[in-house]
Design brief:
With 102 residues, the chain is mainly α. The chain has six helices and no strands. It is globular.
Length: 102
């Protein structure tokens, strides 16, 4: 599944019956719950990265991306918004980007 299809599926679950899907249930619980789940999944991905289990890291990274998109959707931030920001940064050194934020 592409990130675009995943983001579209998440968007389609907004306002859906929370008993009909996990995504609808997360969105119904609000942005704070979505953020909490993203944080949990990110930590699990970090743990697997440190352990060095590639297959588990792949699975946790997928969970993290999904929960990131749900968290963003809960605040009406779209994948297109994120892509636009990445495009804005393209061609710029990460060091320059970090210095510009300071």
């Amino acid at each position: 599944m592409s990130l675009h299809r995943l983001a579209a599926t998440i968007e389609s679950r907004k306002g859906a019956d929370p008993d009909s899907s996990w995504t609808a249930k997360l969105l119904a619980k609000g942005p704070e719950k979505a953020a909490q789940k993203f944080g949990e999944e990110a930590v699990e991905a970090i743990v697997e990265a440190v352990k060095g289990d590639r297959a588990k890291l792949v699975a946790e990274a997928a969970d993290t991306l999904y929960h990131l998109l749900v968290m963003c959707a809960a605040r009406d931030v779209t994948l297109a918004d994120i892509e636009a920001e990445l495009e804005r940064r393209e061609g710029r050194s990460g060091l320059e980007e970090k210095a510009a934020r300071g």
